[in-house]
Amino acid sequence: MSSQKGNVSRSRGQKHQNAVAFKNDKHGASVQVKKATSKVHDGLCQHCKGVLEWKVKYNKYKSLSQPKKCVKCSQKTVKDAYHIICKPCSLQLELCSKCGKKEDIVVPIKSCLDKREQEEEEEDKKEHKREKKSLDDLDSDDEDFAGCDDEEDDFDRDSGPK
Question: What's a Pfam family in this record (predicted)?
Fold first, then answer.
């Protein structure tokens, strides 16, 4: 029996094995799931980042409805779920926003802002390409009427001297 004291090794494998992995958006992604998956977990240590990613992956992540109080500055500025320190305090003191320990921050808070700016620039470029493509399509429509100029010349010739 596996619950016996000191019985560390197991003689058989797992009894029930899942055939497919869990998908948090199996029946269509809800608004909460979309927000949770798109959220960038910045200002966290490696362990806390892994915990939050697990919560998102297995549909356990619950976002905050109202801001929480920061344990460092005592202001209601914590807007991320499961965090105890606001982003400005975390950045200033170089602490993990979730556990409050002084560990290596995996994704710094400032680089997240840079990524957002890069994404906005990429979206602008894509939009510009779409506009340019639609203008090219309009120009290609003019090619359909390229033969009309010749017909006008023929009309002018048939009408006689000017």
Answer: DUF2039
How many of the other CB atoms lie within 10 Å of CB of 137?
A: 9
Give the model's pLDDT for residue 158: 58
Contacts of residue 46, Cβ cutoff 8 Å, sequence gap at least 6 = 103, 104, 106
Helix (H) or strand (E) holding 6: none
Sole residue written with tokens 């957002």 = 116
pLDDT at 73: 93
Query: Are residues 94 and 104 in contact, defined by beta-carbon separation less than 8 angstroms?
Result: no
CA distance linking residue 28 with residue 160, whole number of Å: 71
Phi, psi of 125 (to 5 degrees): -65, -45
Q: 77-86, 87-96, 103-112, 142-151: lowest mean pLDDT where?
A: 142-151
Does 41 have pLDDT greater than 70?
A: yes
Higher pLDDT, 2 or 22: 22
Task: Give the mean pLDDT of the chain.
Answer: 79
Threshold 0.85, pTM exceeds: no
Query: What six digits make up the tokens of 142?
Result: 């003019």
Reduced to 3 states (helix: H, G, I; strand: E, B; else coil), residue 143 is helix
| 4 falls within a domain | no
Are residues 152 and 129 both part of a single domain? yes
Any idea how long the chain is? 162
